Amino acid sequence: MSQTYYYAFTLNNYTPLQEKIIQEFAKTYCARLMYGREEAPTTGTKHLQGCFQLNSRKRPDNVKSLLGIDEIHLEFQKKVYTANANYCEKSNDCWYFPNKQENFDRHGRPLTKKSAKFQEALDLARQGRFDEISAEMIIKHEPRLIKQYIEHLPMENMLLDNENGNFFNDFFILLHGPTGVGKSYSVGMFVAYLKMFWKDYCKKNKLAYQELDVYYKKCNKWWDGYKGQKIVVIEELEPNWFRLSGNMLKQLLDQYPFPVECKGATINKIRPWFVLMTSNYSLRQLCSKEDGSIIEENFKPLRRLYCHLMQKRNETIM
């Protein structure tokens, strides 16, 4: 006799005890189960019309033995699970395990215990509730979970009109100067003032306040660990990396969302608000080839997008 994960069932003239037995069966043996309480229009016979997906394939006689309800009629599902669930829901008086959402998985895919755990992790990640996701799911799927979180964040256009002016335009900053003049310290001060400004801005404009977080990006193509932070800091820019990363930097310093890579996933859109960079080199030096000639396709647009500050020894910028 054949085995399957998927069954449909009917139980006429059911009792409250039999309903309870089915519910306990669902919690023990099923990835999902739902049924509707119905009444036949011609005979008035009350019955349960339902379907379920087991955690492991079983024969009908095994399932019936586990249920212990002789009167129940079981058959293999002839359609995809969601089609059966839609049919069983027509009475609008239903019971679901583990919940309605998982019985109507939007892709109509088989939902095993393993995929149910992943779906739960996805739902938590989209809400930013990473501390509630199991360690197992984080270890196996962290890049994908972070991708889901970021791609479900609202993407703002950067040119916001407000009483403080288009302040975002002024916070793509390259701070350059020789080693030891305090560039990193100045960046820390910028971050502190940005946070103070944002808190005041939200208060004045009656916006829900959420503290601005900082992402410290390494000088490579990866955005590992990025979780939608609004402030991006890149330190110690050098000409070699700058030449290879000109296109990414032009996107980073524009107003529109753009795609980035992290190890294990591609995030289709991010949009930081503020970008602070430090370097021992000026923008012209960063955009120069080894022979000293300027890479115009990088220099011209970046000169327009950046605010350039040069720091000297014993000088405080703020």
Summarize the structure in words.
With 318 residues, this protein is α/β, with parallel strands linked by helices. The protein folds into 3 domains: 108 residues, Replication Protein E1, Chain: A (3-Layer(aba) Sandwich), CATH 3.40.1310; 41 residues, no CATH class; 144 residues, P-loop containing nucleotide triphosphate hydrolases (Rossmann fold). The protein is built from 11 helices and 12 strands. The strands form 3 sheets. A 5-stranded antiparallel β-sheet has the order 4-1-3-2-5. Strands 7-8-11-6-12 form a 5-stranded parallel β-sheet, sandwiched between helices. A two-stranded antiparallel ribbon has the order 9-10. The longest helix has 22 residues. The model has no long low-confidence stretch (mean pLDDT 83).
Total DSSP E strands: 12
Cα separation of the termini? 79 Å
Which sequence of strands runs across the widest sheet? 4-1-3-2-5
Uncertain stretches of 5 or more adjacent residues: none
* Whole-angstrom Rg: 29 Å
CATH fold name of the largest domain, please? Answer: Rossmann fold
Query: Helical residue percent?
Result: 25-40%
Beta-strand percent range = 15-25%
Assigned CATH architecture of the largest domain: 3-Layer(aba) Sandwich
Described by strand count, sense and barrel closure, the largest sheet is: 5 strands, antiparallel
Pattern of helices and strands: EHEEHEHEHHHEHEEHHEEEHHE
Number of helices: 11
CATH class of the largest domain: Alpha Beta
Q: Would you tell me the structural class of the helices and strands?
A: alpha/beta
Mean pLDDT: 83
- CATH superfamily caption of the largest domain: P-loop containing nucleotide triphosphate hydrolases
Overall 3D geometry? elongated
Query: How many domains make up the 3D coordinates?
Result: 3
GO molecular function, one term: nucleotide binding
Family: Belongs to the nanoviruses/circoviruses replication-associated protein family.
Keywords: Covalent protein-DNA linkage, DNA replication, DNA-binding, Endonuclease, Hydrolase, Metal-binding, Multifunctional enzyme, Nuclease, Nucleotide-binding, Nucleotidyltransferase, Transferase
Cofactor: Mn(2+)
